Request: fold
Amino acid sequence: MDELSTVGKSVPRVDGMEKVTGTAKFTNDFALPRMLYGKVLRSPYPHARIGRIDVSQASKLPGVKAVLTGKDNPEGRMGVVLDRPIVAEDEVRFVGEAVALVAAESLEVAEEALDLIDVEYEELPAIFDAEEAMKPHSEVVVQLGHHLLPSIPAYAGHNIPFATAEETPNVYRAFHIQEGDIEQGFRESDVVLENRFVFTRTQHCAMEPHCAMARPEPDGGFTVWASEQHPFEAQLFLSRIFKLPVPKVRVIAPFIGGAFGGKLFVMGMPWAMMLARRTGRPVKVVYSREEVFVDGYSDVPVVIYIKDGVKKDGRLWARSVKAVINCGAYSGRVLLLTGSMVMGATVNYRIPHFWWDSYCVATNEPVSGSFRGFGGVQLIHAVESQMDMLAKAIGMDAYKFRRMNLYKEGEINLLGQPTHAVEAEECLDKVAEWIGWGKKPEKREEGPWRIGRGISAQGKGGLVSPYSLAEVKVHFDGTIEIRHGATEVGQGCNTILSQIAAEEFQTPVGKVRQISGDTAVTPYDITSTANLTTFNTGNTVRRACQDAKRQIFEIAAERLKMKAEDLELKDGLIYTRGKTEAALKLGDIFVPGGGGTAKEERERILKKFGVDYMFCHGACALEVAVNTETGEVKVLRIAQCHDMGTPINPQACEAQIDSGNGFGVGRALYEEIVIENGVTVNPNFVDYKIPSMLEVPLGAEVSSMLPAGVPHEDGPYGGKGFGESTNCGISPAIAGALYDAVGIRMLDLPITRERVLGALKRVG
Amino acid sequence: MKMPLQFRVNGEDYEVYVEPWKTLLEVLRDELELTGTKAGCLAGECGTCTVIVDGKAVKSCLMLAPQAAGREIMTVEGLAQGGKLHPLQQAFIDHFAFQCGFCTPGMLMSSKALLDENPHPTADDVKEGLYGNFCRCTGYVKILEAVLAAGAKPRG
Reply:
């Protein structure tokens, strides 16, 4: 691996020039001739029957071109199990649900028209608390027939799905896994510790609000531009919703202004398409920031019950977890999370006796969605807080206790998957060393401030998938064009994939051109989520490049009357191995337009992989100061170390680790969507605080470290993804540091000043 | 209802006819088609729409277009001169100071206004100057590095 020329180097991001000059185009930066503006009238009630809707005044307003209601809905629905109508029909089930759509010549007119629509509602009883809603024979039923919906195939480990029952109509899905004998495990433990953790709803707060623009095409299809992480999934859903052949819906995802799991599931697109279908004109729908907060598929509120047993010598012996997940009024993507959340409790630590139950419960809150970590933030906070408390209970150091329980290379984890190329121990060692774990901080107090330290470990799995495809086209001038279906949401995938192609063709990154995120011209990709892109799309790009090279060498060998294996490529020139003078130019040897596809490679991947997941681990250590008079918590220093196998671009990897700091600090200390009787009361950046430059440690107070880099044997050049996990370990480390500083243990998030003050008062 | 509006943007004179309730942001994006300036919240909270008006960083979603009459405005499109990147732009590339790129135009304009006033800022100066610009991707670590690096260079 030592002779790599591009992979492993911190080459500048390939999207830099566009992004610093303002020429990078995001969906809302496009406009089309004759384009109309779409707006959505949203329900003010959490649960109500819809009576008469009078659109006559709105329709008469000059400039209004269409006013649509649920009666105009296409046949299909949205959501994992296709349960959410595009526009509410007989009932509304959360505050913010779409009730009517308007298309008008200007945004102002569209907004004015919304005020003129008159809707009669008959309020129905609503339910907001998931634990309440999952009780048998709940008086409020969010949606009839939830439990009759088709079940989602489980995608983790020893899954024993059990059907949800008639008497619990609000339970959408339940998920269970087990190992060993949990009761015996607790009986054999020396210490047993049980706690309940509560997590409120948070928003991704990508700086770009959601946007979709749909253009009706002459063949009856649509072209849709959208801030969408998964254009191929969107294409499939939209074609089902509108009963169109799949290729007649073309989805183009331009640059995406941050996603973090919040830009999935055809958001805004069906509304733009309904309006475009009715008017025959292009329609753009842009979410306001308030709409993003209210109907932006925010992260799930979860209640986690966790009970752990440990032996006196430090061995974790038994763990049982029950998670109650507030899905909101429709299925969103949270049905999948019910299963995948289990990773936060199953991939880090060796536990002989394990029991897991999770329930996805419908309520009259807004629809929940996927969020960076996909349940990891909540579960890892609970697990790692428990690890601190267990260590204390048996008189062990929290760092040593974690370290001795981590899985080692080759061990089979609770998902039945081998632990491979994870550097969990090294990550933990590096952050512990940086923070000075075990040594006293320089200061323990200053005025009202008290200083403390915390540490955490985290792990997450990413699906190994053969469903990320790529095509490579070698141009006459030696430009290497790669076409892939992954989306550049900011994570840097276009840079990493360019580096891989550049490495294969021994050419500068600048000679690689990319076409991505357009369902009409790029091959399918399983999605740019869940740490998948580096590993899966990276592998496919590499293999497609190798396939293209093979074809080039075959042709060149024939021309040169040589063996293909004696040829090599560099900078667009073909050399005989060992010679310094080029034998041929790339352009000499092929008919323009010829290229390789990744089909064979896909078959090879299918045959090759014995595992379904690759795992990435990490650790965090930090120091906080707590103001004992105001309850304010400041993170003073933070170190994170995450394993990503071979880093394809070290500086871009560091940037991904930095990225978790802002997210993690916000989640731990500030972020919370407040919902009162179904109404989101803080849908803006003044009342929902996300960290600015003043609230995160910077400069020398931050260390984002990479471990040595044990290559993953199946990853591209040994690399794998990790960016999704870098926000998950921060809140438990903060909670640990708080305990260290002032002796209070905060179980729930966010750890606001009020909660800290309240806890300080309780301990006196 | 439209009124004439004359102003200078990125060194060019413009005369446009706009409704008086339009914001500077809307006029820049919709009338002048300078879409580098972004709309993130339309309430002055996120900073993605920051431009420079007569040397000061301004959130263009909070400025009504008529207030821009006769003023000199600079947007991200005006930063590079004669095909040469501004030192801040180069520093953002060199330091990986952007990811999704949506906050970048506003962040660059706030940074430029800061450096114009204080060419060699300290870390605290930068934090004070940029805390009104949110970034959700970078954790701000590399943005601070980039602005400090651009501030450390001699500027001409």
Observations:
- Chain A has 19 helices and 29 strands.
- The longest strand of chain A covers residues 449-463.
- Chain A touches chain B through 60 residues (CB under 8 Å).
